[in-house]
Amino acid sequence: xxxxxxxxxxxxxxxxxxxxxxxxxxxxxxxxxxxxxxxxxxxxxxxxxxxxxxxxxxxxxxxxxxxxxxxxxxxxxxxxxxxxxxxxxxxxxxxxxxxxxxxxxxxxxxxxxxxxxxxxxxxxxxxxxxxxxxxxxxxxxxxxxxxxxxxxxxxxxxxxxxxxxxxxxxxxxxxxxxxxxxxxxxxxxxxxxxxxxxxxxxxxxxxxxxxxxxxxxxxxxxxxxxxxxxxxxxxxxxxxxxxxxxxxxx
Amino acid sequence: xxxxxxxxxxxxxxxxxxxxxxxxxxxxxxxxxxxxxxxxxxxxxxxxxxxxxxxxxxxxxxxxxxxxxxxxxxxxxxxxxxxxxxxxxxxxxxxxxxxxxxxxxxxxxxxxxxxxxxxxxxxxxxxxxxxxxxxxxxxxxxxxxxxxxxxxxxxxxxxxxxxxxxxxxxxxxxxxxxxxxxxxxxxxxxxxxxxxxxxxxxxxxxxxxxxxxxxxxxxxxxxxxxxxxxxxxxxxxxxxxxxxxxxxxxxxxxxxxxxxxxxxxxxxxxxxxxxxxxxxxxxxxxxxxxxxxxxxxxxxxxxxxxxxxxxxxxxxxxxxxxxxxxxxxxxxxxxxxxxxxxxxxxxxxxxxxxxxxxxxxxxxxxxxxxxxxxxxxxxxxxxxxxxxxxxxxxxxxxxxxxxxxxxxxxxxxxxxxxxxxxxxxxxxxxxxxxxxxxxxxxxxxxxxxxxxxxxxxxxxxxxxxxxxxxxxxxxxxxxxxxxxxxxxxxxxxxxxxxxxxxxxxxxxxxxxxxxxxxxxxxxxxxxxxxxxxxxxxxxxxxxxxxxxxxxxxxxxxxxxxxxxxxxxxxxxxxxxxxxxxxxxxxxxxxxxxxxxxxxxxxxxxxxxxxxxxxxxxxxxxxxxxxxxxxxxxxxxxxxxxxxxxxxxxxxxxxxxxxxxxxxxxxxxxxxxxxxxxxxxx
Lengths: 250, 681
Ligand SMILES: Cc1cc2nc3c(=O)[nH]c(=O)nc-3n(C[C@H](O)[C@H](O)[C@H](O)COP(=O)(O)OP(=O)(O)OC[C@H]3O[C@@H](n4cnc5c(N)ncnc54)[C@H](O)[C@@H]3O)c2cc1C
Ligand code: SF4
Ligand code: FES
What we know:
Chain A is of the alpha+beta class. Chain A has eight helices and seven strands. The longest helix of chain A is centred in the C-terminal third of the chain and has 17 residues, at 231-247. Chain B has three domains: 2-30 and 517-645, CATH 1.20.58.100; 48-114 and 158-169 and 195-301 and 445-506, 3-Layer(bba) Sandwich (FAD/NAD(P)-binding domain); 302-442, Alpha-Beta Complex (Flavocytochrome C3, Chain A, domain 1). The longest helix of chain B has 25 residues, at 595-619. The interface between A and B is large, with 80 and 80 residues. The complex binds flavin-adenine dinucleotide, iron/sulfur cluster and FE2/S2 (inorganic) cluster. Residues 56-59, 61-66, 82, 84 of chain A line the site of FE2/S2 (inorganic) cluster (FES).
């Protein structure tokens, strides 16, 4: 099939950026979206152009590196699918496809489709952990974890930190991401001692990074490739409220 | 050397400390200071079960107050890198950690699906440290070091405790205890798992420990930073040269010791289940500076991957091994039927039962579809080579769940494998509840790596290698769910002890300044190489060279190898390398984010390393584990080891540009386990 691509090109953070049009020819329906871009890039190089820069690594939907808005939807709108797992059989010959980077103040563009997501890193460094020293821990079966709690914690822990939730949100809020991280650790018994501290520290850092407020539009849940439920946002709000009541705004 | 160091004042941060070196010495560039190549495994004496305890007691310690005077570089943030960086920082050392992704959490370890082994014996089914040790040595086809493997089995139990305490949401039973499953044909249930994403959950655990130390200022994390070379000062590894992948800036970093946790080199084949960025650069650069590269030819081919769909293919996807518990592998008996299937004139359901060849079940009646990875892979290749493959390219066999669905019902199959069936449908567009899956073997893991001693230190003092980057504990073949175990064992429980010995020996003064001539000269070399690549301005992209190399490696040094083909590869690869250095095309410049340049650097190293793999495969005139030489097989077509001549670790020494590398051998002695021929009939 043949497609017309409208791709966001931006040399670096200071460049205002613009769209550029490319033709993607002889695309097989079995290709992944990123393989299609690989092919286009080989043509661009052959034409003495500079290839489209985009992040990817695992290409299996688990590392969270790939990050592009395809036709207005982060990861392209196939339910529960990252851009790297999106395949060309979902497109038709003749389609025009628009490709842009995540757009959010807290995710400045490095180049083309590559953004800087270190704001997510700092949120986790602020408190996204359970403080245990290597070797100083009890036997794993000494701490019983009810299966229901373990399963729910696992639902939250599936978040791959891609940032699509932020990109989809009109407020560029990171609530779904932070909710997933806080919920995972507050749902297991091991996470209890630092529960309040963690919630407060992570929310505080999130605000500091310039993410917007959550107005519960649900756009995040709709694009999340791991289908993290928006219920976790409710949980985060409760965790935070509870922490403030117990600890005061530290 | 130790005595001299004691007199050194601690001028840790900046000033050049040459207390133990005369000034002529300090003018040395790395290569001149090279010590003669020697392999001392440093295996502690005594009964195998006591070696590690005794060794830990005998290791020198760095006192708590002194630890903060040491700086350690950890390259890599996968399971091995993140766990070691976090643990070293907890101990009080200052750590600098590097990874090429934008977050440590994206390291390739994230992709592991199946699980992690540990000798917990929680199921009371007869597992023990000894059994895990025994299985690993046997599974590795008697080509690993007994003492290391025993230690791995010993510390495996601590890993689960550690990860559980970090909040890793392992699968649980209703009573709240940890659940286990049997994996990869093991006779006991010792595998712990977290849905289909054990790797991600374990890595998030190690990453959270790392984050805590970053927050505390004990680890300085450098993401989107690629290590391009290693710096030796007087023969000791003392730092690295890196490229900032956003700005292109090349910089030097010095430390008291350097740890490489940079993963495996499966991407030498271009197509593999590894992440796109996986590379050999870090370990290969170390090799070129004098570190021994061990067993480079040992690669593991995984039997259940989604077949290649066309020449556009950028990587291959693994389908968990667990599918072979219920799926049946088959191809048509008749080549002509297979041809019709390939042309789309027949559907698999049109092939009647008596015209199907369930070749694993008929050939290996007792293990059937659950034979080890190498056998399952080789047999798939064999039937496809006979022209009986069932996908358009001819390279694919069926993995059929029809019987399982009849026997268990679709719901049970969905419960067991739902996420895998979904992933399969996403990639292929085929619903595997209605049609059999098609699978084909793909490169998955590399058992070879930097040679290390019992302390995980290479033959270059101060250079350590952990995780998939070392030649490790898996011999010629790794068992399922044992790589995660080894990465975390190395990172949490082994290296943090053993590195102390080296640091205590050298003393805190032994950290050269960044202005040491050795650092300057390595940086010059790195910059020169980048400029050379950029200035070629030829016609071919790095990817096109990589694909061509991958094809050579797969055809001639893949699942089955023989002398003629390996010799051909050793001729072809240098030619391709020559073309690379005269016809490479990289758009853009160094001083910006330039993915073509990143790729070119990695491909350049693969183009040299691939040849080393072939040389290693050529010298190993036997078949063992993942290394199958068609000249060395039993009359039944099974791998035939030659224990008399080849029970050694091969470790290669770099001898210089356009010179043949030199083979060194570390003999392997089996005192605990009796060597036997594998038999899965
Ligand atoms: C699809 C798949 C499934 C698997 N499933 C299982 C399983 O179920 N059980 C199991 O036990 N094993 C499994 N394995 C194997 C296992 O995942 C790996 O062997 C293991 O995770 C390797 O960990 P590591 O820490 O050594 O390296 P990696 O996780 O590969 O990390 C390498 C690190 O080094 C960094 N790096 C590399 N080169 C450079 C450089 N030049 N400069 C700077 N940084 C660099 C990277 O950024 C990364 O942080 C699987 C492997 C694959 C491919
Ligand atoms: S919550 Fe979903 S969309 Fe947001 S970062 Fe996590 S996986 Fe990505
Ligand atoms: S590349 Fe890893 S999730 Fe897409």
